[in-house]
Amino acid sequence: MISRRLLRVKVLQLLYAYYKNQDRTIAKAEKELFFSIGKAYDLYHYLLLLIVELAFVSEKKIETAKAKIIPTQEDLNPNTRFIDNKVIRQLAENIQLNSYAESNTITWMDQEDYIRLLFDKLVNSDLYIEYMNAENNSYQDDKKFVEKFFLTLVAADEDFYSLMEEKSIYWNDEIEFIISMVIKTVKGLKENDDQHTSIMSLFKDDEDEDYVKTLFRKAVVNHTEHVEMIQKNTKNWDLERIAFMDILIMELALTELKEFPNVPVKVSFNEYLEIAKFYSTSNSSNFINGILDKLVKELKENGKVKKVGRGLVGEV
Known about the structure:
- The chain is mostly helical.
- The protein folds into two domains: 185 residues, no CATH class; 80 residues, N-utilizing Substance Protein B Homolog, Chain A.
- The protein contains 15 helices and no strands.
- Helix 1 runs parallel beside helix 11 and helix 1 crosses helix 13.
- The two termini are 30 Å apart.
């Protein structure tokens, strides 16, 4: 499932595009928002299939070596631990993963050069060498290898980032988010899982889908009101001197604080401060922290923040 953090980022990006586009409508922007979220889900499947593709390449190399006119002992008795990795096999046989990939034309067949490059990086890595030569050969060892492949090799591979950014403009900022989703998926697999085991869905539930719609729509509808609130609490600043992205981040924070009674104030507050660290200027987080603190107090005093649900009643 797409995390709430990434959903917030997606709304922020589309809100920015919405205000920068003269030919804008809420309906058109909302359609673009959900298309963008769908592309993130595509990337999730691309990543899961990446290690499957590398195992397929390894298997072909083993078959080619065995077919030599004069094969060596190593050619005839290869170390097949990588292609026999139980977690990779589970992914390769997963019906949901393969069905989505087929329906959405997700394949690595058109990236032979990159796959060959990554395969060489993998087989020469300490991770691979230690794994192939380890005495233990359990399901947990297979799982840890796959986790570390994404965490240490893919996450640090600049060629991978460049390729993904070339394939889709929607993947510029979210690769690390999706890698964390892939690792979470791998961690959740069990040895007795079969081909019908479900992988992550696009949204956790209907509530997350409604969350995205409401966050975007309410931010647009209440834009004027929120800008006035921000302006009132930044008296020593000319609003035009404040980074536009900072204003949008604060608008979204205000929207979430007011419109979602089951999301704790602290969660919303901290989430948008973290987003500011990545999507605005170097000093934005501290600036936004100070202004949001004032805005939260104002909302509470005016009774505009009402939290309900287990552990939230009385929070404000």
